[in-house]
Amino acid sequence: MAYKILDCTLRDGGYYTDWKFETPLVRKLVKALDNNKVDIIELGYKSPIKGGPYRKCNDGFISNIIDFKIDASLAFMIDVKDYVSDNKVNQELLLDIIKPQNIFQVCRIAAKYNELIYLPEIVNLIKELGYKVICNLMAVSKLTKKEITNYVSIAKTLNLEAVYIADSYGALYPADINSIFTNKNITGIHTHDNMGLAFANCLQAINQGATYIDGTLTGMGRGVGNVTTEQLLIHRDKIDFDLLDCITEFNEMKKYYGWGVNALYHQAGKHHIHPLYMQDLNQSNLTSKQLITVIESLHECHSYDMESLDILKEQRAVVVIPARYKSSRFPGKPLAKINGKEMILHVAEKAEISVGKDNVYIATENEDIAHIVRKFGYHVIITSDNCLTGTDRVAEAAKEIDADIFINVQGDEPMIDPEDIKNVIKLKKENPSYVINCMSKLHPDEDINDKKIPKIICDLKNNLLYCSRSAIPGNKNTLSDIAKKQVCIYGFNKEQLYEFTDIQKTPLEQQEDIEIIRCLEKGMKVKMVDVDKVSYAVDYPEDILFIEEKL
């Protein structure tokens, strides 16, 4: 049981505090760790990346903080990726940030497997500055035995203080630790506690001869956090009262920041999801259903991308299908049967494929329509009888729906392609200030002069210029290759829906009887997306037979 304990509370805990800690707390922590015979205390990073003082660990700053004698060695960490540019080590940057050994005795270097080629050069530079060097191989749970062996072979040539593995995703089991530490050249381990196995994994490593074990007070660390330093100390010997006082203070921080084992972190460990995703989600205000949706989208995401996470977690997309019974051209149209099934159900099922049944809503003024769709498990919102258009009906329904993106799929489009709905959602997320609409080429059996078909023209960036039931663009040349029609899938956010809705139609909208024109007349930007699949709308009873033949 003769192992050394390296405490990295301030370095790993900085992911919650932006590497800012109150000086009295740091002094109290360092003294308590030293009194409890912690061997190495890692105070933070030496990094060129923006962050608090413990992201920089400036020697002068640290000297003013730790102005008392301790027996423990002080350490800092660097990430290889921070010092590599244009596929080579940026020696000038490294030597500008890391000065010759002074208050720190140990430098830890964190590297991913594809960064090992830079390790010898960086290690030699750091050693020339007078530091003992420890290397951490990150994300070891995703590596093969051969890759781990290759890492050890490189490390053996560098005369390191310790050769570490890091369970970055908290995905290892004790049996995995047992297998890895059969290689006796691996001497240290850094565990994450996603599945509640951090302490068990440390014990297994110790039993296999590991001589360096990382811990953090109360487990504070990126994502779920780590094995607790107090567990390691008690297992090795005992802890004193001064450390208990620190634990009390850090537990208060834990209540605020929320690290520690929970179902989200367990899921992350099981699927090798980067810990910062779960840390961010754990502090969000998403509902349980939204959390599950985001987590399923993050399966096997090894690199953290804050922008993509913001898109996933902040934007719930729903499909709202306006279904009016009193259609002027075809009364009762949503309940018209196509191949024995009500048309509204054909549309709802296509929407369900795109966003899931729980995110499909039918907005109608009619109880017969409501009864049918409820019978098949879809949400219904009863709207007023005076909505001017389908989009006005969607806007009214949106007042009762907690969502960020509203996809209006017309209830008379039974051949709509679910992939087109997904594409509208994607384009809406990428272009939040635009209303999104769809277009496709006219098909050979469609006549450009058919007044039932709205035709569209766009600029070179697919921004809508105009939409008409007349033949546009003009017919000086053959139109077969350039004429496009509108496909009635729309993407709005709630604010755009509220801006759209009105007590009367705008003049050109009234003239053409095409609702998307209202957006143009109100100065709203509309971006069109091409769809490839054939889609035909039902406008008149005679269209039913045609649709049945196509289906």
What this model shows, in words?
It is a single chain. Helix content is 38%, strand content 18%. By secondary structure, the chain is an alpha/beta fold. The chain folds into three domains: 4-257, Aldolase class I (TIM Barrel, Alpha-Beta Barrel), CATH 3.20.20; 263-314, no CATH class; 317-550, Spore Coat Polysaccharide Biosynthesis Protein SpsA, Chain A (Alpha-Beta Complex). The strands form four sheets. Strands 11, 14, 15, 16, 17, 18, 19, 20 and 21 form a nine-stranded mixed β-sheet that branches. The chain has an eight-stranded parallel barrel with strand order 1-2-3-6-7-8-9-10, surrounded by five helices. Strands 4-5 form a two-stranded antiparallel ribbon. The longest helix has 17 residues, at 241-257. The mean pLDDT is 89.
Features:
Spore Coat Polysaccharide Biosynthesis Protein SpsA, Chain A; 3 domains; nine-stranded mixed sheet; 24 helices; alpha/beta; TIM Barrel; eight-stranded parallel barrel; 551 residues
Brief summary:
Helices cover 38% and strands 18% of the residues.
- Whole-number count of domains: 3
Structural class: alpha/beta
Could you say what the CATH topology of the largest domain is called? TIM Barrel
User: Could you report the average pLDDT, rounded to the nearest whole number?
Assistant: 89
CATH H level of the largest domain: which superfamily?
Answer: Aldolase class I
What's the β-strand tally? 21
For the record, what CATH class of the largest domain applies? Alpha Beta
Largest sheet: 9 strands, mixed
Low-confidence stretches: none
What is the straight-line distance between the termini? Answer: 72 Å
If classified by CATH, what would the architecture of the largest domain be? Alpha-Beta Barrel
* Radius of gyration, CA atoms, in whole angstroms: 31 Å
